[in-house]
Amino acid sequence: MLVKELGEFGLIKRLSAGIVSTGRPVIAGIGDDCAALYPPEGKVQLVTTDMLVEGVHFRTSTATPFQIGWKSLAVNVSDIAAMGGEPTYAFVSIGFPRDAKVEFVDELYSGMSKMAEACSVDIVGGDTVSAPQVIVNIVLLGEVEAENLVLRSGARIGDALVVTGELGGSDAGLAILEHDLPIEGKERHLMPAPRVREGRLLARSGYVTSMIDISDGLASEVHHICEMSGTGAEVYMDKIPLADNVQKVAENTGRDPYDLALYGGEDYELLFTCKPDKVPLLSEEMQKECVTSLTTVGRIVDISNSIIIEDESGRSVSLTPRGYNHFTSAI
Q1: I need a surface site. Which of 6, 181, 266, 324 has the fewest CB within 10 A?
Q2: Do the Cβ atoms of 80 and 125 come closer than 8 Å?
Q3: Mean of pLDDT values over 300-328
Q4: pLDDT for res 325
Q5: How many CA atoms are closer than 13 Å to the CA of 308, on its beta-carbon side?
Q6: Ramachandran region of residue 55, left (φ > 0), alpha (ψ -120 to 50) or beta?
């Protein structure tokens, strides 16, 4: 069956029937003109939105509808995690060609629903439209205690720059797909796992001074923190933890493995700052509660020292923010 045969309202009814509630109280959800929600009592409301467009963020030739749905919500959840919050309600707007198969839509929503279930998100509204290609736009709400809210702007001179997990895996996964490489690890690109539990732990610790999710590459995110905090930074290349598929992909494509971590993006790990003496304690707690590693990759310095990276030979060079940019990067 095609989407145009089902019609807009038939499609909405079909998709709504497959949504699983987390049990969070909702006054009115899908079916009314607006969703009616209870405000988070005593907490800060977080709101984020991301749009994924076929041909820009994904290709239906290399990603399944399930994976597209999963990732479209996951990238939003990662933003909430970077503020130390918990995701709550999602509003999903999707555009499809009129001749799209209903089964494609079902699978996309299935992937999104699984991501929502994994992160305790309620899908409570949205819209469907006809479009020349697949477009998914999500508005996601979240909440965080005022005392636990973490911004990009709090980094202090002397703070350590720390990352969760490993980097470069998503860009390596993209290369595996594009070049059809016989290497494992493409799932790192197709189905990222946002660090909600990790973000909550870091925020509640009281030790973290700034935080951001790594969506555009480590180099770009370091620049964002420094710009908002009015500081400079030093990054140590040999300390950057590389995902296990990075080296093989670099060898097969002729790329520098550290370029994938610094400039590739879409790893959706967390980059944060804190006093250096707090890193061991946070690392112990993180390993215990989330089984996630923490790695110090640099430090915050005075703004007059700019933003530099020390390469493997000990030479310091300027670290340029060459992350993905929609209006300057080639698709």
Answers
A1: 6
A2: no
A3: 80
A4: 46
A5: 13
A6: left
Backbone angles phi, psi at 122, to 5 degrees: -100, 125
User: Is 326 among the domain residues?
Assistant: no
Q: Do residue 71 and residue 203 come from a single domain?
A: no
DSSP annotation of 161: E
pLDDT band at 241 (very low <50, low <70, confident <90, very high): very high
* Residues 167, 289 within the same domain: yes
Same domain, 113 and 161: no
pTM strictly above 0.85 = yes
Cross-strand pairs, 30: 32
At 92, list the tokens: 């999903």
| CA distance to 18, 55, 104, 178, 182, per residue, from 264 (Å) | 35, 17, 29, 14, 20
Structure confidence at residue 331 (pLDDT): 35
CA atoms in the 13 A half-sphere facing the CB of 16: 15
pLDDT, position 323? 53
**CB proximity list for 128: less than 8 A, separation 6 or greater:** 8, 11, 12, 15, 93, 94, 95, 96
Q: Is 222 exposed, middle or buried (0-12, 13-18, 19+ CB in 10 A)?
A: buried
Rounded mean pLDDT of 96-123? 93
List the beta strands (DSSP E) in 41-197: 43-53, 86-96, 122-130, 135-145, 160-164
Count of the separate structural domains present in the chain: 2
Q: How far apart are CA 74 and CA 44, in angstroms?
A: 21
Domain with 180 in it: 150-318
- Among the candidates 147, 182, 197, a domain finishes at 147
